[in-house]
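Hi R.,

Here's the chain you asked about this morning:
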Amino acid sequence: MDLRRLILGLTLCSALLPFANTFYAGYTVQRQQLIDTTQDSNAAYARKLAKSTDDFLQSALQQLAYTAKLLAEHMEDEHQLMEEATRLRLQTQSFNSVTIYNPLGTVLATSPETLQIKGRTLTSTAVQDSLRTQGPVISQAFMSTAGNLIIFLSQPIFSSQGDYLGAVGGSIYLKQESMLDKLLGEHFYEDGSYLYVVDKAKRIIYHPQSQRVGDTVTGNQAIDQAVSGHSGRIAITNSQGVPMLAGYAFVPSAGWGIVAQRPQSATLAPLDALMRTMLYKTLPLTVLLLLLIWWGARRIAQPLRQLANGAHTMDRPETAQTIQSVQSWYYEAQELKKAMLVGLGLLHKNITKLRQDVHTDPLTGLGNRRHLDTALASFAANRTPFAVLAIDIDHFKRVNDSFGHDVGDTVLKHLALQMRDVSRIDDLPCRVGGEEFVILLPGAPRHIAAQVAERLRLLVESTELPNVGHITISQGVSSWPDGSSDMPTVFKQADNMLYAAKRAGRNRVKVFMPGRKVAETV
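And here is the predicted structure, written out as tokens:
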């Protein structure tokens, strides 16, 4: 990363991060406030509706109780029973149908008469509960004899002597228009908000989508809490996978649960629009600020960038003039410019020596592996044939272990001198490893290279070194392109010959002969 990008990045971070943090914090706080407000509103709404529903059910029971008193003296009067059932159904429209039955559950009168259940014995759980308890009943949702999904409310009928004479019941049809449907349906919103009611068995008894009425809902925390007698708020995901903000409440008289909920997306839509508006209004100033930052960063970085470019080409003669022309308009750039001009003079004095050192082994003064690679590249480019001598000191580890590395270094230096002694002017003696050496003989055939190797072997063998005495070397010889057209293969051949020399007893030269399985020994 250059200085301009660094300055630009730091300045942008300093300018944009606080803005982004403020933007994000404002969005987060307002988002949570909207969610809390919606949930509180839904919870309060559910409680209010639960109270209204409970009042409606209590009022319906009171109507039934009043009718039960009127009927106590007329249970044998079929005409009176029919009139009272019709009056109760039509007067308040609290019920879709009214039924009067005796202690055996046999229907004595019903309104409307189209139900055609007069004289039939009712066996539903709701009717049996009323007969068994001889008290008021608000049933769970069930399928009636006439095939309607209903809720049944009933009050017992007692004579003046206290004898149980039967009961009068009112049915609320859940899949048809009713007073309960009107009470709940008036509160449906157009933004995706809605409410629904479940009974104690978690069966839907009211839903804006009428086809959902009668379904049993499981795995819904709002419903679980509501039918358990609790009121509150919660964030849930509905059966269609939509995140909802819900409030729930309990209807005490029936054991029902009411859930009022609104899509989270509808709640947050105004906030999203507000944040977009705020972003659009701040965008022009932000763009202007970014342009100013970019211009300033470019002006500050330009002298240093020019100096840095000069630093990349300090080995070129024209670099000094280029650096001299840099417009360093502030203190730091001016001082860097002066220092670079001073350093440039020193650099040109040392660059020649550095170029030499980079291709030289520091211990022996021979060429190193880089020097070797450069020479090979030149030979390959000019198609110059060459021979290669792979050289290794026999038992050199024993020298280091017995006399120390200082003596070992002396041995390496002495061998390097002897390699120079036997080499021609154009030959390249190199050190490629610890005690591993190579001599390249450009233009030399294998037999000449073998003679040079033998001359070096005899010279090393006959020389007595201080502290160490006599040492020996093993050598392998190959040539390019006679041995192979692939240079790495030629070096591999020479190494193989070197190892063959060591296996044969060391202190000898092995020459690779193409087409022969056995190497030639010099």
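One quick note: The chain has a mean pLDDT of 86.

Cheers,
M.
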